[in-house]
Structure formats: structure tokens, C-alpha cells
């Protein structure tokens, strides 16, 4: 559960998300049949620093995407943008359910989020 993961992360310091991850997370809330889902997601998101996808992140993500394409390992624009945002803020660890994509990016440590 996310709350347990956050408790573990709190022991290590701050936690952050890309504005792209925030978008994906909130889409799920807006699309939910549960009336309280969006509110719960917004409250959870308030516990994170939200890093914007800016020019520096765009440069890193373009570099990542170009490198992966040369190897025939394209993983999708949004994931490369998330990785670019991470690199632009000096973050090297991601908590995700998408290990397959992020494992292909050099310099990123992948932690698995298993519901």
C-alpha cells in the first residue's frame, strides 16, 4: 500500500514526483467512480514535492530517448520525460510498477511498487 511505502520513504528523507506523474495519478482520480477518490489522491499528492517538466528536464529526456532509440529500446515519451525530470533534479531512484522501462535507463535505480 502507498501509505506504507511513504512511511518507509519518510525514514530516508523527502519524496518527489514529476508533474507528469502527478498528471497520471490525478487522471485516475478524475476517472474513478468513487466520489472520494480524487480528493484522496490530491491529499496524498500534497505530501510530495512536484517537480515541473522544464527546459532542463526536456534536454535530459531528449538525450535519454535518443540513446534508447539508438539501441532499439524506445520506452515511450512520458517515461523518458519522467526520467529526464528525475535527472534534472539529481534524483537517481524511482518507485514504479514499470520496472521494464526504467531498468533500461542508465543511472536510475528502480524500486518496485507492488500494490
Structure explained in plain terms:
The protein has 115 residues and is an alpha/beta fold. The chain has one domain (2-112): Rossmann fold (3-Layer(aba) Sandwich), CATH 3.40.50. It has helices spanning 2-12, 19-30, 37-45, 55-70, 77-88, 99-102; strands spanning 16-18, 49-51, 93-96, 109-112. A two-stranded parallel ribbon has the order 1-2. The mean pLDDT is 89.
Q: Could you write a compact summary of the structure shown?
A:
This protein is α/β, with parallel strands linked by helices. It is 56% helix and 12% strand.
Determine the CATH topology.
Rossmann fold
Sheet with the most strands, sense and barrel status: 2 strands, parallel
Proportion of strand residues? 5-15%
The strand line-up of the biggest sheet is: 1-2
List the helices and strands and how they pair.
Layout: H1 2-12, E1 16-18, H2 19-30, H3 37-45, E2 49-51, H4 55-70, H5 77-88, E3 93-96, H6 99-102, E4 109-112
Parallel strand pairs: 1-2, 3-4
Helix pairs in contact: 2-3, 4-5
For this entry, give a set of tags.
single chain, 115 residues, alpha/beta, Rossmann fold, two-stranded parallel sheet, 6 helices
